[in-house]
Amino acid sequence: MAEYKEILFHSDKIKTDDYLINMGPQHPSTHGALRVVAKLEGEIVEAVDPIVGYIHSGIEKMCESLGYHQVIHLTDRMDYLSAHINNEAVCLCVENALQIEVPERVKYIRTIFDELTRIASHQLWWCATGLDLGAMTTFFYGLRDREPILDIFEETCGARMTFNYNVPGGLMFDIHPNFQKRVKDFIKYFRKKLPEYDTLLTGNVIFTERTKGLGVLSKEDAIAWGVTGPSGRASGFECDVRKLHPYSAYPYVKFEEKLATEGDTFWRYKLRIEEMWESMNIIEQLIDNIPEGDHAVKMKGVIKLPEGEFYQRVETSKGDFGVFIVSDGKKNPYRLKFRSPGFSNLFALNQMVKGVKIADLVAIMATLDLVIPDIDR
Amino acid sequence: MKAFFNYISEIFRGFYSLLQGMGVTGKYLFTPWKYITQNYPENRDTLKMFDRFRGEVIMPHNENNEHKCTGCGICEINCPNGTIEVITKTIVTEDGKKKRVLDKHIYHLGMCTLCNLCVRACPSDAIVMGQKFEHAVFDRKNLTKVLNKPGSKLEANVKE
Amino acid sequence: MAFSIYDFTEFTKSIHEGLSSSLSPTMTTVVEWVIIGVLYILFVALFGLFLVYAERKVCAAIQQRVGPNRVGPWGFFQTIADFVKLLMKEIINPKGVDGFLYNVAPYIVIITVFIILSLIPFAPGLQAFDFDIGVFFVTAVSSIGVIGILLAGWSSNNKYSLIGGMRSGAQIISYELSIGLSIITMVIMSGTMQISGIINAQANGWFIFKGHIPAIIAFIVFIIASTAETNRGPFDLPEGESELTGGFHTEYSGIKFAFFFLAEYMNLFIVSAMATIIFLGGWMPLHFGEFNSFNAAMDVIPPIIWFFLKVCAIMLLIMWFKWTFPRLRVDQILTLEWKYLLPINLFNILLMTAVVLLGWHW
Fold it and tell me: Does the pLDDT of residue C312 top 60, yes or no?
């Protein structure tokens, strides 16, 4: 016990009869090696302290010894559920630094892939949320519907999760001839299956009772803690990078930024379901209009960025993802910093958990959509 | 009185939502012959990966046991993980010139992240991605492979 | 020996007479005890394993999977292989456990199962005890099981186990009430607490048909409460693996874990059997009042098959719950019991009393 007291809750406040439980690093509902120390009063959580770093892999430091086209494959391994969007962030940053204009075709394909990635990520999140709340069947239904997306990725990129499909200046290959047909088939299929999610979980009286009004995060807190993505938008924080700083083909499409004011667990859940609908709309607007052209601009084998600092934001499925490159004109970045959404979202946890039960703590953590390598990097 | 009716309607609405959920799972429960999983080791013969699937790096050889690798080492430079080691040797050709050719193209599968950068960078398309995905072995040493076959030569028409 | 699949009374009686003709009365009793004990142990082991297999196949069907299919035809021997593995595992006593209580807890849980099993009639004549207060005895004994779970949670020296055990205590004690009250509703109808009496009263129609509205309400309440009582389905808070990593049996391994595991599935069988006995006529074939030809056709199917068909149908329903619904929270579980099920139950008893007094049942 002594070791907790030193790191936890400013040790002077701790009383001898505090009941501390240690969720993780090995615990089924922390989705990886995250440790959350919770102070309990019976079943009621008084405070939590997330402790990160158990699977820290030093990606930022590793990037300093790699070239710019080699950095990209490491970003696959951070937030592995939005791997393509992470790749794109680095590519956009490098392209902006070099002031390269990529072909329109690349922009369209990148955007379609972004949205497919977002759907796949939200599907897996839906699986895990159901599992955390005790509905085990949701896990298999979500994975079932994710499979067609992974097939699309595999056919075009050659990998199911760690794509490495973006390169500075464009894409690694052109899309597969079957791509458009498969995407259209998937959207037709998923439009039929998504209402099933609502019947099974969203409308279920047990689920609504468990999540409504739980873990409320106010708009002020969301802004103060930098909670972005669907979690922040559920509190009314307009933080969609796709709207604020449109990149790739987002300026060409019409879509709605889904917002809610409640900021509770149910709306964090609901917004993600609605984002899946919205992503399908975006894909439908783009899929038939992919312009002809090259899939990449010619780049040199070794990319050297001009001296200076470059920053690029994108919207991953978790929130606002940033890439900050400091270049000293050599072929490796001098410093490369990732602003990962999971990290900020996790540390707002303490604002939401006062007075909830242990089971609710699991539910709140589930709807924050935590991916641990994204937090630890 | 109104509170009482609310109480009753709450019960029925909750009950109805539960029945709807059971309807969704029941649809699958009573059709157990419709499953979506694959019987993996049994379907090994029919299982075909996509053409672009990245399973491992291979070096294709033609029927005369010739490959296209000139031993330039660009793949080695491009690899982020030090997966590839290109070892060259110098030989004397028939017309008396000294020439640098490939001796061993060593590939550490255990370190490879299958990022495709080596294949993309190769100037003579000597290495490609193979579709094999069953890489489990009992000894880690078996993951280190020599991609060029013993006694293989450079194809005649490859530009250096 | 007169053996008939339709009525075991003659058969058991002939065994008893055969034994007493050659042995002293004391020895006869001892031998009979041993035979019955061995039979029940075999039944628990084999049927428990079958239930684990059935559950895995049911959840596979719901989740569009195949389920176990490696060991034996359709994976039928998978659970036997699992059980052998559990038997061979090391039994670990973690540091700091309360040794005696920790070791005794699984036995309390499994013994409760055996006591209740002895009251369940599988077919006419296939029942170990037939008390005149049978139903009451079942409810009384089934609440002993919670002591085992509480002890397991308390003695494991694990915070998750303790929370799981406490949750289980609160939950099972509350839901005992609903089970008891819904049984009382049907006892009012049958006029007896003896299990054979209850079954015989349903010879001309099962209680769920004879008692119409109040019986159906009582049936629904009984099914919900018994799901909670067995720590299953949406009420599996004491285990709650996503919250408590296994709850009260986190620290158990090997055969002791297997006891908890078997007890959980045999409790599923027991509550389904009780629901069958009280609402669906036990081993009684489907009879409708005066339709004699229909009744005779139904009589062709042996009672033991009727019993297991009905029990399996109810077990399927309870498994269906488990694989569909999300888990309730601990305060919601108590709210459901005290604010919803209990008032409904009390009202239902009044309704049933009125129905019986006014003779509105069939």
Answer: yes
CB atoms under 10 Å from CB of A313, counted, come to 18
Distances from the Cα of C246 to the Cαs of A24, A39, A270, C236, C258, in angstroms?
14, 20, 29, 10, 14
Query: How close C86 gets to chain B, by Cα (Å)?
Result: 27
Chain B, nearest residue to C340 by Cα: B11
User: Residue C261 is part of which domain span?
Assistant: 97-358
- Residue C206 domain flag: yes
C64 with B35: Cβ contact below 8 A = yes
pLDDT of residue A2: 41
Nearest to A100 by CA among A252, A315, A306: A306
Tokens representing A68 are: 């710019």
Q: Give SS3 for C188.
A: helix
Q: How many domains does chain C have?
A: 1
User: What angle, 0 to 180 degrees and rounded to 10, lies between the N-to-C axes of helices C254-279 and C145-155?
Assistant: 150
**Structure tokens that stand for A105 in this block:** 């075709």
Contacts of A144 in chain B (CB under 8 A): 36
The helix/strand/coil state of C315 is: helix
Q: What residues form DSSP beta bridges with A47?
A: A39
Six token digits for residue B122: 């190769």
**Residue contact B25–C64, C-beta within 8 A:** no
C357 CB-near residues (< 8 Å, 6+ apart): none
Question: pLDDT (tens digit, 9 = 90+) per residue, C156-171?
Answer: 888 888 888 888 888 8
As a whole number of angstroms, the distance between CA B155 and CA B158 comes to: 6
- Cβ contacts of A361 within 8 Å, gap of 6 or more: A23, A36, A38, A45, A48, A353
Residue B138 pLDDT grade (very low, low, confident, very high; cuts 50, 70, 90): very high
CA distance C217 to B66: 81
- Spatial distance between the Cα atoms of C109 and A90, rounded to a whole number of angstroms: 59
Q: Where in chain A is the domain with CATH 1.10.645.10?
A: 59-376
Q: Are C123 and C275 in contact (CB under 8 A)?
A: no
Residues 184-223 of A with CB under 8 A from C: 200-201, 204, 206-207, 209-210
| Facing residue for A200 by CB, picked from B21, B117, B121 | B21
- Reference A175, options A112, A120, A114; nearest CA is A112
Q: What's the complex ipTM?
A: 0.83
| Range B50-154 classified under CATH 3.30.470.20 | no
Written as one string, the DSSP assignment of B31-84 is -TT------TGGGGTT----TT---EEE----TTSEE------HHHHH-SS--E
Is C59 within the bounds of a domain?
no
Residue C333 lies in a domain: yes
Distance CA C186, CA C181 (A): 9
Distances (CA, A) of A117 to A121, A275, A377, B35, C359: 6, 12, 20, 25, 66
Contact A136, B32 (CB under 8 A): no
**Rounded mean pLDDT, A234-262:** 87
Q: Do C62 and B25 touch (CB under 8 A)?
A: yes
Burial of C214 (0-12, 13-18, 19+ CB in 10 A): buried
CA C102, distance to chain mean position in Å, is 25
* Count of CA atoms in the C-beta half-sphere (13 A) of C80: 9
Q: What are the residue boundaries of the structural domains of chain B, listed by start?
A: 1-36, 50-154
Q: What is the CA radius of gyration of chain B?
A: 29
Per residue in A33-70, pLDDT (tens digit) is: 888 888 887 778 888 888 888 888 888 888 888 888 88
Radius of gyration of chain A (CA): 21
Give partners of A (≥3 CB pairs < 8 A): B, C
Is the CB of B28 less than 8 angstroms away from the CB of C62? Answer: yes
Class of domain A59-376: mainly alpha
Q: Is residue C283 part of a domain?
A: yes
